[in-house]
Amino acid sequence: MSDSVSATSATPAPAAPLSDKVREALAVSLRGCAELLPEADWVKKLQRSEATGQPLRIKLGLDPTAPDIHLGHTVVLNKMRQLQDLGHRVIFLIGDFTSLIGDPSGRNSTRPPLTKEQIEANAQTYYKQASLVLDPSKTEIRYNSEWCDQLGARGMIQLAAKYTLARLLERDDFTKRYQANVPISMHELLYPLMQGYDSVALKSDLELGGTDQKFNLLVGRALQAEYGQEAQCVLTMPLLEGLDGVEKMSKSKNNYIGITEPANSMFAKVLSISDTQMWKWFTLLSFRSEGEIAGLKAEVEAGRNPKEAKVLLAKEITARFHDAAAAEAAEQDFNNRAKGGIPDDLPEVSLSGAPMAIGALLKAANLVASGSEGLRMVEQGGVRIDGAVVSDKALKVGAGTMVVQVGKRKFARVTLA
Description:
Layout: H1 20-30, E1 35-37, H2 39-52, E2 57-62, H3 71-85, E3 89-94, H4 116-130, E4 139-143, H5 145-160, H6 165-168, H7 172-179, H8 186-202, E5 206-210, H9 214-226, E6 233-237, H10 263-271, H11 275-285, H12 290-301, H13 306-321, H14 324-338, E7 348-351, E8 356-357, H15 358-364, H16 371-379, E9 383-385, E10 388-389, E11 396-397, E12 400-406, E13 410-416
Parallel strand pairs: 2-3, 2-5, 3-4, 5-6, 7-13
Antiparallel strand pairs: 1-6, 8-11, 9-10, 9-12, 12-13
EC number: 6.1.1.1
Function: Catalyzes the attachment of tyrosine to tRNA(Tyr) in a two-step reaction: tyrosine is first activated by ATP to form Tyr-AMP and then transferred to the acceptor end of tRNA(Tyr).
Protein name: Tyrosine--tRNA ligase
């Protein structure tokens, strides 16, 4: 059974014609999104906001289970920024309480909770990085321990009474684990309830999340109704495929771009994606208008080199997390490398143990993950020392200072003693 918590509303779609402002806000909301539920209710909220001048409350909850953000995480943050730029109130919710439970989303086993110290450290780093996308001056930061800690045993029982076990077990990962006799701990069943209760505490009008969060977001909508509040709408964003164009962007898959990566690395990695994948990235990661993107796509279809469009995307993303000058320098560095040139910002590595086997040297210089990978690169003609291709896997490198290159992008100035 799918994650099928009801998103229906008895309220009919508004009959009044939409103003230009509401049409724009709806278009911004729908851009690149997977689902907006229920759309008619969201339109009503937008109309009310326009009539009253009262901004809507847009909630994004994040459990700080890892300290670093990659571009995949920014898909939802970009949507938050777009809604923020329309004048609505963004609430960046740190799930410090729910992190103690651990969200089982997409997992077939329980996940060990983090310590309070780990959560606090991750939360600080996470928000600092998220602020590279969001406007900090227009962002409300909240921690769900504010209201969750106050619930106590009595409050938890009262909250649990507002939802049934049958509905919780409709969640895909719970269903599969239950049918496969894989243990589900009681604390995991509390996670969707606690995330839903956040929406009650914050009186949110709209909650955002990835498609894998749809069930939890709809629980929040249901609980708001149980507490006599106007139910929030739910907007889910697709999961961004990584550099391989297949798997979801993930550090564990090593197909990610971290938003704190050096500008040169970030620029080069964006340029490595496929011409087809580029358009999805434009929709989800660029702040260019849909009209501009459609125009670029038409030019490419008419014969313009797709790399030129990809360079625009790479420069925009690099400038966002660094600055325009860094993006320009990253483009120059990429072009220099493409011509076989040596980049200006070579990492300096000092090693001892000469003469050193070429595989061991490449690994020690952090140019490959292992000595065996280094030997494979030698075999493939992908290793150069001072511009000369290394073809001998048995090479012992003598003492001295040299520029070592692996592939097109990895360089180091190595001093071997």
